[in-house]
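Lecture 7 notes: from sequence to structure.
We start with the chain below.
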Amino acid sequence: MNKNSNICSQILYNNNEHHPPTSQPKPQPENQTMASPATTTTTNPSEPWLLENGTMKRLTRTANGHSRTAHNMSSSSLRKRSDMQIISKLHSSILRVLLSSIHEVIFGTKLSLLLLAFPAAVAAHYFRLPQPWVFAMSLVGLIPLAERVSFLTEQISFYTGATVGGLLNATCGNATELIIAIFALLQNKIDVVKYSLLGSILSNLLLVLGSSLLCGGLANMSTDQTFDRKQSDVNISLLLLALLCNIMPLLYKYAAANDQNPAADVSNTAKAILYLSRACSVVLLFAYFAYLAFQLWTHNDIFESQEEEEEADLDTSQDESPVIGLWGAIVWLTGMTAFIALLSEYLVDTIEAASTSWGMPLSFISIILLPIVGNAAEHAGAIIFSLKNKLDITLGVALGSATQIAVFVVPLSVIVAWIINVDMDLDFRLIETGSLFLGILVTAITLHDGTSHYLKGLVLLLCYIVIGATFLITDLPFARRTIQVRVRDLNHQIYRCYESVGQGFSL
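Predicted structure tokens for the same chain:
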């Protein structure tokens, strides 16, 4: 933009600030929310406007250096506008700022009632109630806390700009999964870490995306549902890279088991798999940082152009300015992260007792229940935008979360385990790795043509149900008894074979 247009935009902005309109502007039809440069744009004098190349355009968050990610837009669908009339009448400015901040953070969400689960979980822990109750309260308490973290990171990004805000959202986008993984590693519960992270990927790819496409297809059957393939292609390629890094340790284990060399013993194989997993984790982290550079700097138009278009179609009642100060948002974000860490510690401590009490396998609770409840707010937002035929936001939430977990949280967990002397590798065993492979494959095939309908969503959802049923019966008592009987029969057959061979030699 040249110097004259900057001066004109500043004059327009100042005139709008000092001369507010005396009457409300006429509402525009929904199909005129965005105007092309060739058409006449109806301006609202109560809003700041920018004169660029002879065209009037509203000064949005992106123009101010702040851009909203799909995660922010998804979580914002669960927020509600706060009424500050009573607080604004207070005489003390310090008290007014403090109460308004508390009101925005605690009551500025439709999930505010679920925040009561946090003190309930703490009370259940200290009064030594049954551990399944502590697990259930902690699980429910994570729902609003995860949504509030997304809200606070968006508030901080208003002050830090698009680049720092994008990095902050990338770091805190899956803070719940990362914190749970760290506490599980500290207690050497490697299976819980693997199960929970695998479940997060599968739930985003199959459950969230499948439910969104199904609901959006049923609600918009009379219109064509299309989306931009550029963003989904980038995410699918990264997911395939993560899949390769998970498959190679598994293939090496089976190749070593079939090796006839006596030197290839179990201990050497385990060490080789561990070293290979750490090397693959470093590669994945390098790919993730390259993905951040690709998303925030070199090719940010792929991720932001469609989001800006969708944002212009959102309800105009949404806030266009921060509602909390920078330091207040930082303090609240620190506090919310500490609350999530406390509930995560309760979850890790009580998950085995809940598995025994409820009669559910540990794998089912970790793969199915934890991801569904932990990211329920973000998942609900993705479905809401799908109902509004805004599939690019839905795909940004589902595929973005799955990619972030696969190429960032999983390898980072391996590196953290390496630092604290815990031997965690990328060998997720056969059933788990096979489920991940099929989940990524079905998702890639579903999104290959850039269109959507309800049947695609139904197929993804049914795939998730089949995988969930598989993990439900894997560790049940009757399944273990069946495996033991088959092993016993196999040993008996081997013994009879050796006995017949011995008799043959004695003859």
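Points to note: The beta strands are 49-52, 55-58, 225-226, 451-452. The CA atoms of residues 495 and 501 lie 10 Å apart.
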